[in-house]
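Researcher: Re-running this chain for the archive, since the previous output was lost when a drive failed. Same request as before.
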Amino acid sequence: MKLSSVFGIGFATLLTASLVSGCGGGSQKNAVAKVGDTAIDKEMYLRRLELMPTPVQIAGNQATTAPAGYTTLVQMIREQVLLDMAKEEGVLPTDQQVEERVQREMKNNPQIKQAITEQRLTLDDYRERVRVALAEFNLRTKGVTVTEQEVRKVYDENKQAFYRPASARVRTILVQNPEVRKQIDDDLKRGFNFQSIVNKYAQNPVAGVQSGDSEFALEGQVPPTPDGQILQRVRTILKNAKPQQVTDWIPVGDGAVARFEVLAKSQGQQLSFEEVKDNIREQLMLQKGLQTNRDLNMEMAKRMVNTPVEIYSEGWKKQYEKDIEELKKTLAQIESQQGGKPAAQGQAQQQPQQGSKPAEKR
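Model: Regenerated structure tokens:
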């Protein structure tokens, strides 16, 4: 197992990835695994699994899919290990800090608020996502300070980077199959709303349908390429479209066509220093944190192999034990090259014995 397969990098990466829940809590009776003394709640795991896209692994020139259930569980184990590490080092975010960050993200990102409003994501699950992201940020920036003058200097010297272009928030459906396109046209004629159509056809990826919500920039340079021409064509159509309007089919290359529903539009604006200073400070802190000698990925890898984990699915337990053994070998190779001692010691070898069962019947 490569270190990169276990760890994410930085605060922004965690918050802009797929919408996910956190882990931890719950009784063992309703758990799928146990990390140290903390159970991974079954209901939270199932909500998380619903949002997990099918993981794709690339080996040579061949792409294979990985079980989403196992991938989800490993990620939740990793997050619980990270939270435990942050607690030990005294940098675990408080409930108040988490809530303040949640409100900030919901204010700055309408898609998050929409996902919660439409019940595609619960507010509690998003709080846990933010808690994990803040914990990792705090670990990466422990002991780092950034002055107000440093933040102001970055803003003054890069004001053009803090211009927010005009944009349209759109719901999109992209189709390649002419028969599916006709079915969608017929549904629209029968009075189905666009969201129900997106939900209906998104459940059939075999039909070559792609869909989703996104923020589409209506300003900025486009490359002088065929893709750039398509982008400019879509921009022009969206600029002239009104909120709640559904566009006609637009050719988007390779025989595919797309339709857009304009959910909302915003004008371009120069963001003030007050609006962006927190983001600038965080980026500067992460940059300074990367310059320190601390290798959080390596520390987390060592904690992963040294944290007792009990998984209640026999198949996944065996796979996890196999992956941890590979991770131990990777750590040993790295530390051998660095002249250090092997990382996999002590509790690293205290994995659940093959065929062991939880004490309580499930």
